[in-house]
Amino acid sequence: MGRPREGKKKGKQEQTVEETVEEEQEETEVIKLDKWDGSAVKNNLDDVFKQAVIDLHPTFHEDTATTDLKLFLSTLACLFALGGCLYGFLVPHPDSSFVVGLCVIGYFGLVTLITLHQNYMDPGYLLISRDNRDEAEFNLLELSVVLPRFHTYVSVDLAYTHKNSGETTVVSRKWCIADFIYESGTLAQDRIHDAIQEMKEEVMEKKQD
Questions:
Q1: pLDDT at 12
Q2: Nearest CA among 127, 192, 202, 194 for reference residue 170
Q3: pLDDT tens for residues 163-207?
Q4: How far apart are CA 35 and CA 181, in angstroms?
Q5: CB under 8 Å to 77, separation ≥6 — which residues?
């Protein structure tokens, strides 16, 4: 299933992005998983799809602002919980009631805020990347990978936002997960890279039209 190797190796400056990706794939560690474990399959597919998009778009850089916000709120909630526990342990009841009560309110308030953000504000993208170069045609790239529980088909959306017009071009694909897993349980990373490459080429074709 592997790709044929070229007879001669080009210099670094002559290599295209696709050739660089192919060399990296050859050095990639083989991923073998239990194909009957839905969570393992989903997590590994997410990782490889995300890495394929990153490899094929070297000028884009991941935007972690949404993740950083959720981590900050979660850390703050944990600090409220820890502070309430420590203060309640060090200061006897009822003298500690007011401070512990504030910590409880703060904790549950932040947990509620995180839940609301997760359900109503978080776009749920697996990857959000930005290209901040002045000459960049697309400045925003978003990847969504959906594999519902007990389903055998994975849906992938790749969205490119044009820098000047602000219009978004979306390419959607759906594959059976068996297309990316060999009978031995080895993940076919080269096929995933090829799938993302085809989606990228389709966006370029739409742009030319």
A1: 44
A2: 202
A3: 877 888 888 999 998 888 888 888 888 899 999 998 888 887 766
A4: 8
A5: 106, 107, 110, 111, 114
DSSP string, 70-81: HHHHHHHHHHHH
| Angle, helices 189-208/17-27, rounded to nearest 10 degrees | 170
Query: If DSSP codes are grouped into helix, strand and coil, which group holds residue 186?
Result: strand
pLDDT in the model for residue 26 = 52
d(CA 4, CA 19): 12
The backbone region for 123, taken as left when phi is positive above 0, alpha when psi lies in -120 to 50, beta otherwise, is: alpha
Q: Tell which wins on pLDDT, 173 or 30.
A: 173
CA distance 101 to 90: 15
The sign one gets for the Cα dihedral 31, 35, 37, 43 is: positive
Buried b (16+ CB within 10 A) or exposed e, 8-43: eeeeeeeeeeeeebbeebeeeeebeeebeebeebbe
Q: Which residue type does 138 have?
A: F
Query: pTM here?
Result: 0.70
Four-residue CA torsion sign, 184, 189, 194, 200? positive
Of 3-7, 102-106, 127-131, which gets the smallest average pLDDT?
3-7
Give the mean pLDDT of 123-133. 84
- Quote the CA–CA distance of 115 and 40 in Å, as a whole number: 25
